[in-house]
Amino acid sequence: MATSVSMPALAAAQDVAAPVSSAAGAGQSEPGIRVDDDDPVEVIGNEIVVTAPAFRGIVDVPQQPIMTFEEEDIAAYGASSIAELIEAISPQTGSGRGRGSGRPVMLVNGQRITSWREMRSIPPEAIARMEILPEEVALRFGYSADLRVINLILKDNFAAVTGAGEYNRPTRGGYDNYELEGGIFKIAGPRRYNFSTKLTETSMLTEDERDIRREDDEYPTVAGDPDPTRYRSLASRSSELEMTATMTQGVGEGGLDGQVTVNGGYTRSVTHSLSGLDTFTLTDQGGNSEIRTYDDPLASRVQTDTFEASLGYNTQFGDWQFSATGDGSYTETNTRNDRSRGADIYGDLQDAAAAGEFDIAGALPVLPSAGIDQARNRVFAGTSMATLAGTPFRMPGGDASLTIKAGYDYSRTMSEDTRSTVGDVTLSRGDVSGGLNLALPLTSRDEDFLGAIGDLSLNLSGGLNELSDFGTLANWTAGLTWSPTDTLSFQGSYIVEEAAPTLAQLGAPQIVSYNVSVYDFVNQTTALVDVTSGGNPNLRKETRHDIKLSANWQLPILDRSNLLVEFFKNRSSDVTQSFPMLTPAIEAAFPDRVERDAYGNLVALDQRAVTYDRIASSSIRWGFNVGGRIGPDPRAAREAAASSGSARAPGTPAAQENGAARSGGASGGPSGGFDPARMEKMRAALCAPVQPGQQPDLSSLPAPMLERLKGEDGQIDPAKLERAKQRFCAADGAAPGSAGPGGPPPGFDPARFAKLRETLCTEGREIDPATLPERMRERLVGADGKVDPVRLAQAKERICAAPASGGQAASGEAGQEKASGNRQRSGGGMPFGRGGPPGGRWNLSLYHTWRFTDEVRIAPGSEVLDQLSGDAIASGGVPRHAIEAEGGFFYDGYGLRMKADWEAPSRVNGTGLPGSSDLRFGSTFKIDLRFFADLGRNESLVRKVPFLEGARLSLTVDNVLDQRQKVTDDAGEIPIAYQRAYREPQGRVIGLDFRKLF
């Protein structure tokens, strides 16, 4: 692979102006200068071409990427943030292993990040390249192999101020949601910073707004009582404010000694919900019964404040990469629940009725006002991890890779609850961890070692966790990766892990929630019961044994397509799970968790976590990704033009136009492929004055280059050293063919450039298109044959800022931004300037999951439950088949995105006794659509309304078909607890989103 980098900043101006005036300008390349045939650095004309097996920013692993996204592909999604982009590509980033939860493992420029906060609000326009990698790659960065890995390679220079607003409302009405967001983001070489704020507001959705019906009560309510569905919420009223700030700074000259990242954030969320009216049943001495209702609803308010901070450090020790991250948070949650007055006085009133002190027909005594239960939970959490990754030795098949990790996590939770009978609860846990991952290349085509087999590598990983409150947990992994060709790879992994229940599952305070709808399979009714939640100190350690087999084939069609097949077989013992759906089998296994009255009616349920004896499953997940270009390929056009000497500097390979394939597509700097500061450090080492007969101190040179300077005896070869010095030390400190300090590149024609500056930069002068160089005329003249004033202003900004001598346009950070960051800034921050790339992109990704087995044994010796056959423990059964899809197209600034999910129907078996009924859960098919227009690409519109520069307008329709799962019993009736509005309260939601980059 190769990347080429123009050394002077003025190259950007030449790109806009005219081709260089030299013999090479006719399309003939100057001969390159190398130390030897294997040298990774070659100077060609005014370009430095770097060829190497890997660059900073790229993850060099034997596993092939599942998907790779270039700038054009990312722009085709029209996403407003990294978070939105990752959500859009969830079918590709989802893991079929079923162990991990949450978002994928995130890397930035091939390095670990401190936390998700560091990059969640980064504008997608700042990404040069994005790779999705298999789960096994996570082992190399200190994570477990249960989530896929996303590596974001950022541009070296980018700046944007963003503002966005979004409004959403269901077509069925009932509630509103809106979001306001703003941020500042900038990258300047090794430095980047990001500040963002987001406010989200959502109103409440109640049962009466979705026509929820209630179970017919045994006894009628008092006439005139209010409708209780108005006081039970399906979706809470909520408000959330997020603020984050991140700063990354290079350490040392040019950021060569590493980088430091500091991140902080604050989040406040408040939710309000209603759990119905306060009711209780009275029975007097005569046996008359009646449900009495208070007019006040039972309300709940939860406020959560979270303070977060993190610190990260990355540096290089020779060939070893060191990374250390620490993330800490303090979360305080305050909950206020209205206490049921009926529950407080029920016993007293029943005693009074039994004593004949009142009857139903008479007046009730004066009742006390309702009280409030309060709970406060405070959590301190800190995580830290240090990794050291490098190549400890070389094998015939290549370099071995070793990652050593060590970390310490700490969490402490303190709970106070007026409903708890055990008083205040304090729980803490310390987790000391350590482990290593070793990757061994067994065969290699590049190294010509058993190359007929292909590339075969072995991966071994192991680790220990010592939990202060639970004991020792162990894990180990063994895997093979085989690539018989460049387009086909196979993987096999065997994973053994031990896991502990969370602190909350073990010791969270017990809380009782009133009037919760629970379906009772025994009585085939929906009961409003008191539900207990909290911790269970009797949970045990879980042991997992997983097998994964996969194949990835890069299809020989289109320009980016592949087929992925993955097989998973999981087996776990002593599994901690949330309390399952209350089927007869579950009630029989946990009889102490269920409370019924004398008539067999369900009145209370303890839903704290439980331990299952064994869970086993197997499945296959396969899918394909296809995509292509709409319209002409700009790369092909540029390469065709280059052959006539009009598109780019002589000797520049096509790889530069393609983002340098594996180089990150950047123009240098620590986060891209070629690093000018690092090249200067190499030059200083080679060109330092020494006494005759002595050698310069070469210890600071990169190890690959140092090896190439050695002869067969392992010592520095004087001839190779001399050639390197000639190449690096010529031209007053500049490499041959490159610019001297502050000077123009070879082939630069000062007179021609001065004439161009005079034409463009003279105030009040009318521009005659015929006087412009041909290439520049094509860029500046619109379809009407006249000079576009906006494009002309951009060209003036670039060319008029450069000194007539052709040196640096400006000094310091501002000059760097003008010279090499201007393309990112043009067009309001759009990745391809105001007009965008010619043509467009389309893609389709489709993944199918087929579950073969899913079995649960609750206790040793108990019956094995087959969830696929209806012995379900989850609320909704387990479907055998599921399909995920996403796709769309983007052309000339307009795009359409689609995301779809389908699940097959499933069932839950009843007791089999007379009167019992099975439940059938219907299939679901949810489609989300998003239409967007990059208004800033519409040049005529921007001329009329300049504010629309860098603006995007989007229309979203979630759940286009208004799908809500249908649940029926054997008679075809829908149980109260499974009404469609309970399954999907919102229904179809339409949203409008406006975003602008300033």
UniProtKB/TrEMBL annotation:
It is found in: Cell outer membrane. GO terms for cellular component: cell outer membrane. The keyword Membrane applies. Residues 826-838 have a biased composition (Gly residues). The keyword Membrane applies. One of its GO terms (molecular function) is siderophore uptake transmembrane transporter activity. Keywords: Cell outer membrane, Membrane, Transmembrane, Transmembrane beta strand, Transport. It is a multi-pass membrane protein. InterPro entries: Beta-barrel_TonB_sf (IPR036942), Plug_dom_sf (IPR037066), TonB-dep_rcpt-like (IPR039426). It comes from the Bacteria. Residues 634-677, 803-838 are annotated as: Disordered. GO terms for biological process: siderophore transmembrane transport. Its main location: membrane. Residues 634-664, 803-821 have a biased composition (Low complexity). This is TonB-dependent receptor.
